[in-house]
Design brief:
27% of the residues lie in helices and 15% in strands. By secondary structure, the protein is α+β, with helices and mostly antiparallel strands.
């Protein structure tokens, strides 16, 4: 997600189911001449002091990814070089993973896209909509229930608490509805379970009638509760068993094992012209289980692992001999799932051009971008500058890992895309 200033620093995300800690060798792979422009961009970002380190995975078709890297995972003397198996807080890049877990349940007939979420969370049967969102909490009854589709596409009428100071945002803060990991003081207000979280969300009026407007939101966090009710197991465990384990994503964690602490990058924030440490990898809160595993933010992952997830999507649901989703399920997930008549009216991403479409948990470009991605490109972003996407026309998959706030301090996405497609055109 794209956050700014203090809001970005408040959002230090998620979740609490342990995973395996299989450490693969961290070897930074220098590219061949075919990715020279992209490597030059990464080197320039590090050499100019914008970031301490960065890793980008670029995959084409069924071929293994090429890993480009520069710098280190922290400014500390002796910090490891950034590489394919370095660990990064991916924040809202958790959302597409959560979305595909939901699509697994759709495939199994345990969820339907246009099913009311009140079938799983009864508290949502009596939703209300704000009459004057900018000024009061006065509300009227909603005309229909929120559906699974609307959670997947941020058209539920929910929001995030850091988007303003109106009464609705203050109410979210009062109830601890941030979603994800926060500092100790803010954590005191957070619910202790996903069930409590979802039930509290249902007490707050909606910004808009479900299915009518796109608002970036805690929708995927609520979807986590839907998933655990529909699957009959804790949300984090279902994601582990249905997505992470089958794909061999052994460096993707809700809680980073102690043995992995040395691979976890330090997150930084910019205060004026100073880059300061914000969350130190070796003593990170991600080394401890959080109260709740949220679906909207919070996984820690590596470039190698996230590329495995993208490869699964790009290949219609499978990697090698392992099938996670059926081709028809992936095709549906990567199609424009926005309810009829809804348009994305705001661009919360670092992409200079808005996508105008939305699939399951990620944006969907409906038109070619001059000098950039093509129609059908699907992906999403993290609060600390990371991003990932697949371009079906070029058969490209791209994952970029960094950890700095605010994510719009530097135009990393625009620079990486420009260089990548320059390299692609030349080759």
């Amino acid at each position: 997600m794209r956050l700014a200033g203090a809001a970005a620093l408040a959002m230090v995300s998620i979740s609490g189911v342990g995973a395996h800690d299989v450490v693969q060798p961290t070897v930074a792979t220098r590219p061949d001449a075919g990715l020279a422009a992209l490597q030059s961009v990464l080197d320039g970002y590090v050499n100019s002091g914008k970031i301490p380190g960065v890793v980008v995975a670029v995959g084409h078709g069924d071929a293994p990814p090429t890993f480009l890297s520069a710098g280190h995972i922290a400014d500390d003397p002796g910090a490891p070089a950034a590489g394919p198996d370095s660990l990064w807080r991916v924040y809202s890049m958790t959302k597409p993973i959560t979305a595909m877990a939901a699509m697994k349940l759709v495939e199994e007939g345990k969820l339907k896209l246009d099913e009311p979420i009140s079938d799983f969370i009864p508290a949502f049967k009596t939703m209300r909509v704000l009459a004057s969102p900018a000024t009061s909490l006065e509300s009227r009854p909603a005309t229909h229930w929120i559906t699974v589709r609307e959670l997947l596409t941020h058209t539920s009428g929910l929001t995030y608490q850091f988007f303003g100071t109106a009464p609705i945002f203050q109410d979210y803060a009062r109830l601890g509805l941030l979603g994800g990991r926060v500092g100790p003081e803010a954590s005191k207000a957070q619910p202790a379970t996903l069930e409590q979280f979802a039930d509290r969300v249902a007490t707050v009026p909606l910004l808009s009638e479900p299915g009518t407007e796109w608002h970036y939101s805690i929708s995927l966090d609520v979807l986590g509760r839907v998933i655990e009710v529909a699957s009959g197991m804790p949300f984090g465990r279902f994601v582990q068993q249905s997505i992470l384990d089958p794909l061999g994503m052994t460096s993707t964690f809700w809680t980073v094992p102690r043995a992995g602490a040395g691979r976890l990058a330090t997150a930084y924030y910019w205060k004026g012209d100073q880059r300061l440490p914000f969350e130190i990898g070796a003593s990170s809160m991600w080394l401890q289980p959080p109260l709740v595993d949220y679906g909207g933010s919070g996984l820690v992952s590596s470039a190698r692992d996230y590329d495995r997830f993208l490869e699964m999507l790009a290949n219609g649901g499978s990697v090698g001999s392992v099938r996670v989703l059926k081709p028809a399920t992936v095709k549906l997930a990567l199609s424009n799932l926005l309810p009829a008549g809804v348009q994305i009216v705001s661009n919360v991403t670092p992409a200079p051009v808005a996508a105008h479409g939305f699939g399951a948990g990620g944006e969907l470009f409906l038109k070619d971008v001059p000098g950039g991605v093509h129609a059908g490109t699907y992906g999403w972003f993290g609060a600390a500058g990371s991003f990932a996407f697949i371009d079906p026309v070029k058969r490209l998959r791209v994952t970029a890992m960094v950890n700095y706030f605010p994510d719009n301090k530097w135009p990393l996405y625009a620079d990486v895309v420009k260089a990548l497609y320059q390299d692609s055109a030349q080759s």
